[in-house]
Design a protein that fits this description.
The chain is an alpha/beta fold. Among the domains are: 11-272, Alpha/Beta hydrolase fold, catalytic domain (Rossmann fold), CATH 3.40.50.1820; 293-503, P-loop containing nucleotide triphosphate hydrolases (Rossmann fold, 3-Layer(aba) Sandwich), CATH 3.40.50.300; 507-599, no CATH class; 880-978, Ankyrin repeat-containing domain (Serine Threonine Protein Phosphatase 5, Tetratricopeptide repeat, Alpha Horseshoe), CATH 1.25.40. It is 50% helix and 7% strand. The strands form 4 sheets. A 7-stranded mixed sheet has the order 1-3-2-4-5-6-7, with helices on both faces. Strands 9-12-13-8-14 form a 5-stranded parallel sheet, sandwiched between helices. Helix 50 (1027-1033) runs parallel beside helix 52 (1061-1068). The longest helix has 37 residues, at 1198-1234. The radius of gyration is 44 Å and the shape is elongated.
Amino acid sequence: MAGDSEPEKHGLFKLYPQGYHPSSCDVDIVALHGLSGDAFKTWTDKDDHLWLRDSLPGHIPNARIMTFGYDSALKNSTSRMTVFDFAQDLLARLDVERQDPSERERPIIFLCHSLGGIVAKQALIMAHMQDEFYGNIVKSTTGMAFFGTPHRGSKTASTGRILSRVVNVASLSRTIRSDLLKTLEISSQSLDLITRLSSQILSGISIISFYEQKPLSSTGSLIVEQFSAILGFPNERAIPINSDHRGISRCSPRHPNRYLPVWSSLKEMVEKSLLESRREYDEFMDSLFCVDYKTAQLRPRQPHRGTCDWIFHNLTFRGWLDSQQSAALLLSAPPGFGKTVLTRHVMEQVLAGEQMYSDGTCINLGVSFFCSYNDQVSTSEQTVLRSLLHQLLQLHPRAQHVICNGLLERKLLGLTYNFTTDKLWVAIRDTLSMDEMANTFICIDAIEELNVEDSRRIIAGFNDIVEGLNKSSKRTRRILIFFSSRPSAQYKVNHPAMHILSVNRQHTEADIRSYLGDSITEFCRTNAAFAAAIANRGSTSVVEKMTKRADGMFLWATVAWENFCHGLFWNEDVLEQRLLDLESTPPGINPLYNKLLDRIDPNHRKELWSFFAMLAVAKRPLSEAELSELLPVMMSHRDDLTNPCEVRPFPKLVDIVEEHCRDFITVHDDGTILFCHLSFKEYLLQTWATDRPEILEKAKMSITKACVAYIIYWDSLAIKGQSDNPRCLQLLDYTLSHYLSHLASLPPDHPLWVTYAEAANSGYFSVNDSSPLHSLLEENFGRLVPEKLMSIEKCHSVVRAVVSRGYDLNCRDKDTRGSILNLCCYSVGEGFRLTVPLLLELGADPNLYPLGKDANLKAALYGNQQDTANALLGHPKFDPNQTDRNGQSALHHLIGFGSDEAIFALLENRAVEVNIQDRVGSTPLHLAVDRQRSEVVRRLLLTQHIRLDLIDKHGRTPLALATWWGLKQIALIIIDRSEAFPTPETSHISPLLSAAKHGDEEIVRVLLPKTRYKHIGRDLDESGKGFLHHATMNNWYDMIETCLMLSDVNTDQIDHSGGTALHYGAKLGCTESCRVLLEYGASTRLQDRNGRNAAQMAAEAGFKDTLMLIVRMGNVDANQRDHQGRNLVHWAATLDCLDVMQLVCQQADVEVARRDNSGKLPIAYAWSCQCPKVGRYLSLRMKYLGSLSVPWKDPYNWDRVFEIAAAQYIKGQIAAQEMREASELAEKRRQLEAQNQPLDERGWHLFQPKPEPSRQLKTCPRENNTM
């Protein structure tokens, strides 16, 4: 690689850091210039500021920044390298620079200007194909930023027009690189191939597309239009830059606000690439994405040059923008006043960093949703919120962790995202509350296009967020909400704090004049006859007349002018006549549309009416290919259509539009054909519904017929493996998305419903694991939008109609969802609930359910669909004894989720097998015990042939299960049945032992006689303890005595830790139980795993009476040592009980001077435990009994121990007295407050504590201990 100081322009050059070490950087940033560009000059402004080197490191200091140069010169170049060669060169050089192990997995981000984006995409394709050599590069690529990259061409611009722009930009000579130009042509096969092959790779990384907004001065037009600069992927952010094609890649510090979106978005992209949970982020974003909101953002027209800027000087708008708090503004305008165009202009100005607060700071974060240009069927409150949240998380990827946790819900099959509106509102509020989201701008256009309730909730929800943010003391910046809508008086009434900007003629007249003036000037330049005709009259009078007639409606002025200038011949008389025609037109857009339609050639009206009607009834804008398939169907006289290939498509519809429909229809940059303004669609649907209803009905019928026929056609191709047929793909996307919404407009008895249902056993429904009624009910009842496809009654009529024609309700789809009845039982909603009785009436089998899933009854009960459950239970063919995948019957399901009444009714009216065991061995009785359903347990016990000896996989009978969980009342209910007491096997759980473990004395006293005191010592719990252990621990000494008297239980039975019942009795101070055990021969010398006997356990626990009982009654060896070498004297020394130590020392040969494993004597433990009585006793005994070889000299000051004890006693007495006085004072205050008597200065002293000269407290008498 060439160094920075070398003059070469081609290669990979490192710009930052200068002193590079592989461990010093976290990400690689690689910049690629465009056509005729330069590795350095492309990124350098006129002040020689190379922002990749001079500015970018300040924002991303942990990046290695490189720039790649290649020979893309158009003139004076002898190179014949192609895009493929450039890409291969880039891969080779980049691989050389990433040889260190820490570099191989380092994230890569590409910054691409113009052609550089094509080269980078080709490089990723080749790296993917050459995985052995360059696989790490494509795997490490986490982001791409495109600066004016022409990904696609425009249907409205010819190839020659695009080429001329490129030629002008490059200042071509005769020696041009025509091969590179050909790559950038709209019809370029190589460009299409690169775009298609790279789409899969690009869909998994972060993408930012910057697009230019200023035309290049030398051409007067945009070099790369917006539609071509934006890919339209869900993972893409589109950001406008208020610069031309050259300036878009030169981030100058002289324009900090203009290029702020570049800095901030690149920084966010780097942060996202370094996220440890990047894969989880991508998966969540894919789940969150629901509609193509990016395309809708680009469909509104861009404003005419110089218009729409009035809003930035409007007092209401500036007051909202400069508000010191978060605020919401509603832009209200009548139809045709250009509110959507104005909204887009505001949004792009914000995203481009051109609009600032009054303090000079910039709004750098913006999200939007354009309701008018999104799919009408799917647009709802939920889709708006999901789309906005998707954009917000693109701006702040680190918020994903917080948002995901709030949206995750645990279902039967695991964790899933809950995208209900309530959850989404919480997620948006939490995101906007983060400090990183300060200065965020949210824009929702044409909110009136939504359902009334949806629009009301969205406006109210964001106003609540604004109010909540303003009340928060942590916010230092504000959130701005921008709505646009048609006028409504309810907005101000419901939200008085919201700013409302009502657009009127005063706001738009200046823009109308500007538009008309520029249009007339441009028309004069291209039409000499018109220029001569208007020369004497002057353009001002024409502008004023048309402006006056427009009455502030920009759309009227636009449509009127476009129609006005269509004449072929011009003179002053023609000009005057056309002005008179405009003046005779009534005000408003509808009369103008009437007049324009009347001017259409009568010979063409029938075809064009069909064209208009097809666009009007379509659920979204249609492409030329889609319309070419649909229009022949409408114009055909055939009633049946089974194969779309039988109808030949219409070619070159765009040419027809250009010639005959320019006043009404336009071809968008993305190739879709749509109305020039949505008001014309509203005009058609409203006016033609009364004037020409047959045209609209025929259009609806034709598009529905085409969709159904297209499905059948695709069915046949799918079966033959030819579903990738180009003809098949023309209408596939539209058909699969909207065929049901078109069918819903037909009457229930229409033959197309039957045709639709007959597709059940082949093609689309089989290949895609579905069936017709599944799709119908899911789409109609499962939709989250308030407006359903059809009413419940109509849907039921359709079901009846298709079933009457032979549709099998019990057919299963291949998606394991089972029959249509299964779908209704699994789904929640009124429509599904009301459909179940109908399906059962029509012959649906209530016992069918899909493999691997729950039975119908369980699904209904789990979803709290009680009516559905009752309908199933009441069906005569319902089999209550059928088991599901878990081996559970209907009785299991009802006990788990149903009501007592339903269970009793099933037992009363059906022959139910009550002893069915599920996969884990539980019978219905087991389940009733587990769910603590006592009434159900009683009822089951009354059932004939009920078995109480069946065990589950853990070895528990129903009674054992009740005692296992400590369910006392249920256990007592079962105990009333004599057969509940089979002798448990060794591996089974004993009810008696479980009850004893839980301390249920009442149950134990009832169970003991019923066991006849047999096998009491055989049953052990998981720790090896038997009944005698637990009885001793509960101090049931009378039961212990009875058991030892009547059974053969071993008193010295040990558990897994080596402890006997006597050990635990001594440890817990159960003196009476220990007495009984000792009377029946319990050993006092057995040691547990720590080597301690029962007496040592009692001494360790500090139970004096128990210890003395064991020493007196048992055969205790005081010199027996535990694993730490301590005998009983050591343990007794820890108790300051002189009588205990004297009793222990009465045994013969007691070793009072025995040292333990740590070398400590018993007297040392007496000193450590502050036991002065025992300590003095041991000291005297060691001194006078001569137990030591060396005369004993006591090193301990026992008098000091007594003084400390006395001081502690006095301190405790003082503290207790202070607490008593404080309590008395508080009580007096409460009494006074209860009597409502104020505390004045004269009365308050009565409740002050009186000073005491001295406290006379009794001291703890010092005990004189003598031998």
